[in-house]
Amino acid sequence: MNIAVVGTGYVGLVSGACFAEMGLNVTCVDIDSNKIDMLNRGEIPIYEPRLKSIVTKNHKASRLHFTTDLKSVINDITILFIAVGTPSDEEGNADLSAVYAVANSIAESMQNYLLVVTKSTVPVGTTAKIKDLIAEKLVERNLGHIEFDVASNPEFLKEGAAVSDFMSPDRVVVGVENDRAKDIMSRLYRPFLLNNFRVIFMDILSSEMTKYASNAMLATRISFMNDVANLCELVGANVSMVRRGVGSDSRIGKSFLYPGAGYGGSCFPKDIKALIRTAKDYGYQMRILQAVEEVNNNQKEILFKKLQHYFDGKVEGLTVAVWGLSFKPGTDDMRDAPSINLINRLLENKVKVKAYDPAAMDESKSHFGDKIEYATDIYDAANNAHAVILVTEWEEFRLPNWSILAKIMQKRLVLDGRNIYNAEELASNGFSYTSIGRV
Ligand SMILES: NC(=O)c1ccc[n+]([C@@H]2O[C@H](COP(=O)([O-])OP(=O)(O)OC[C@H]3O[C@@H](n4cnc5c(N)ncnc54)[C@H](O)[C@@H]3O)[C@@H](O)[C@H]2O)c1
């Protein structure tokens, strides 16, 4: 089966490469010609574990192709995935301009049967609008007799583990309207789920809603634990112990209960906003999600507030090492990362920032230019600093040599935004140490 994935970002490139890995003939399409040129030269525009090897292997095997020209492939494919970005617009709605631009291009050039699948995260009702748009355009082209189907197949991969998630998903959610689309999608996903076929078929509206509800649930757990952590600090409890106690309940489970500096990334912030907006459009208020967002916005300020508190508000002129810039380990993605809030606050307050991240240094340069200093490793960042602030818990940050740090820092202070360090070990090296929800 030949397929195309339109939008070659985190989701589109991973999906395309993984479908090719299963033997399909895949064309990844993007309007960004630089990105397509890079991919055709064998360069991978994003950092994602395992991605380079499967892209390279399948590109060499001529199962994975890259182009900017959708028209050149559209009539040789059975399935077209729309995997373009759906960022927030100014009011918090999902900006669907890229999705509809793709739908228009499809309608302008298709001449054969096609199954059009929305993989982008889109508000409930969007796939139906895509169907109407394509149908109208086909009629305008006197091609109203051409059959096509639409389906919704939201993506649940996690950046940092995207390839493994895609190759072995917990489940695949597919919204369809008829058996023809259902059969095609079953054939497509069977190789991924040979032992236990976990494709959950449903109607399209429910499928679109499932994606938002899943992200909303995960974000709720994080904000809930951040609230609990803040209260732990006030009452003298230790949130790490509370988390273990709570998460060991099999009804609750351990995932997404880690307090920190707030959730970020390319999905949670925008998807929470978009779901709140969708509800508003229907005259309904998502009160829990409004609180989730508010708690998160406050939490993103917490590391700066702790720094201010430690220095009695006199932070101007300090030098601070920021360890970790990506919104989580395993990715170079900095979209809505807590590090951005923190660094902006530091710069506003005339604090000198020395930052280090194992993957996101190039990305951070596009955010901060020459406003901050870019270090070569954690020690270079901490050299001469008054404080280290850990924002992203990359593995290589987990066991620093505290005795070296004690010698090279101006002041021995560590603010741990992910609760990964041991207070006693730091104290024994002469450090002051603050984390989240642990006194
Ligand atoms: N990143 C994730 O972890 C993740 C996980 C699940 C779902 N999603 C959803 O998947 C979608 C894509 O997310 P992403 O992170 O891959 O986005 P991204 O920004 O990394 O990539 C989007 C790509 O689409 C391209 N594009 C934009 N308009 C286009 C057009 N008209 N034609 C062709 N290409 C076009 C862009 O150039 C870009 O390369 C979003 O809706 C997102 O919410 C993302």
3D structure, described in words:
The protein folds into three domains: 2-202, Rossmann fold; 212-227 and 237-298, Rossmann fold; 300-434, NAD(P)-binding Rossmann-like Domain (Rossmann fold). Helices cover 44% and strands 13% of the residues. The protein has 18 helices and 14 strands. Strands 3-2-1-4-5-6 form a six-stranded parallel sheet, with helices on both faces. α17 links the parallel β12 and β13. The termini are far apart. Bound molecules: nicotinamide-adenine-dinucleotide.
Total count of strands: 14
Query: Which kinds of small molecule does this entry bind, naming each only once?
Result: nicotinamide-adenine-dinucleotide
* Amount of beta strand: 5-15%
What global shape is seen? elongated
Predict the CATH topology of the largest domain: Rossmann fold
Biggest sheet record: 6 strands, parallel
- List the domain count as a whole number: 3
Tell me what the CATH architecture of the largest domain is: 3-Layer(aba) Sandwich
Classified by CATH, the class of the largest domain is Alpha Beta
Relevant CATH superfamily of the largest domain: NAD(P)-binding Rossmann-like Domain
Overall radius of gyration: 24 Å
Low-confidence stretches: none
Helix segment count? 18
| Residue-averaged pLDDT | 97
